[in-house]
Design goal:
CATH superfamily of the largest domain: Endonuclease/exonuclease/phosphatase
CATH topology of the largest domain: Deoxyribonuclease I, Chain A
Shape: globular
CATH class of the largest domain: Alpha Beta
Strand content: 25-35%
Number of domains: 2
Largest sheet: 6 strands, mixed
Strand order of the largest sheet: 5-6-2-1-16-15
Order of helices and strands: EEEEEEEEEHEHEEEEEEEHHE
Structural class: alpha+beta
Amino acid sequence: MTRHLVRQKFFFLIPELYQLKGKIQRFSDSRRVFSGSQGPRAAIVSSRSLNVWHHPHLTEDLCTTLWEAGSRRYPRIYVASLYLDITAENGMLFPNSWKKLVDYCARTNSPLIAGTDTNADSTLWGEKTNKRGEVVEEFIFTKSLTLHNLGTSPTFVARGTHVCIDITVSMNLTPDFIETWRVSNEVTLSDHRPITFQITLGHGTPKHKIQNPEKTTWTTFRNRLDEAPILRPIYITANWLDAKANWLERNICTALDDACPPRWVTQAPRRPKY
């Protein structure tokens, strides 16, 4: 389950939906629920204060909404929740509706953010890679999606299994759109741990991330890099090199944030000298 909060406004992106006797359990009246029509496994829950609409790209394993964000930078944002069937063959892993949605957003330069239960292992978001993970990696790179996962904390914990299989991806959004991405230790009724993050729509005075290198704990920095998993490819390809570069950049940034906690400041406009 991925949770996105904007002050008291929120989305819950639920790739694997819990049902009782084939029915979605009731949410409070302050929330709106979007899902497929028959036996849905993916759903989106939003606060009623958000201007959110159903989108035609709705199937059993994909739920898509169009969010009228009202931002000058992002007037409309597609928000999706995707479940990749654990029994699907690698060649049939992605629903056609998901492919069409990604291609549409790429063609029209439309912003898209999605929470996905991949049921796949990859060192881009976990500690190992399997064939299914390689298929997901290939899709991410060929479609120019941005992966927002940080670290390798397990997102699925059940029956002695601790793996990271849930990811957050986006496209046509600036790097500062998603902030404070993390896997929460909050106790829920699901065997998937909540993923939480905040977003920046660009309202008000922009904030800037600053760090003071003189206050860096370099021992912590080196330890965090040593703890990162090692990527060992079966064979080296251009996509793997891209993945390695992105992996290295994310791990360096994560280690630096741990060793030198950043501050967010609002930069006031400079007054002319006269």
